[in-house]
Amino acid sequence: MSSLTKARRTLAIGLAVLLVVIITAGVLGWSQVNRTLPKTSGTIEIAGLSGSVEVRRDERGVAHIYADSMGDLMRAQGFVHAQDRFFQMDLRRLVTSGRLSELVGEAGVESDRMIRTMGWRRVAEEELPLLRPETRQALQAYAEGVNAWLATQQDTADVALEYSILGLRNPDYRIADWTPADSLAWLKAMAWDLKGNYQGELTRAVIGDQVSAAMVKDLYPPYPAKAHAPILGLADWRPSSPNRPGGPQEQPSSVTNPASAPIVRTSENLQAIPALFGRGEGIGSNSWVVSGSRSSTGKPLLANDPHLAASMPGVWYQVGLHCRTVSAQCPLDVTGFSMAGMPAVTIGHNQRIAWGLTNLAPDVTDFYLEKFDGDTYLRDGRYEPVDQREETIKVAGGEDVPITIRSTVHGPVLSDVSPLVASSARDVVIDKQAPRTYDVSMAWTALTPGKTADALFALNAAQNFDEFRAAAKDLAVPSQNLIYADVDGHIGYQAPGQIPIRRAVVEGAPPGYVPAPGWLSEYDWQGYVPFEDMPWVLDPEDGFIVAANQQVTPSATPFLTTEWDYGYRSQRIRDLLTSEPEVTPAKMARIQVDDGNDFAPVLVAALLKVKLDDPFVEEARDLLKDWDHTQPAGPGKASAAAIYYNAVWSQIVRLTFNDELPTGLKASGGSRDMASIEVLLEKPTSGWWDNRETPGVTEGRDEILRQALTDARLELTRTLGKNPSSWRWDRVHELELTHPVLGTEASPGVVRRLFNRGPYGLPGGSSIINANAWDASQGFAVTAVPSMRMIVNLGDLDESRWVNATGQSGRPFSDHYVDQVDAWAAGETFPWPSSRAAVEASATEVLTLEPKAETLRP
Question: In whole angstroms, what is the distance from residue 473 CA to residue 428 CA?
Answer without folding.
Answer: 40
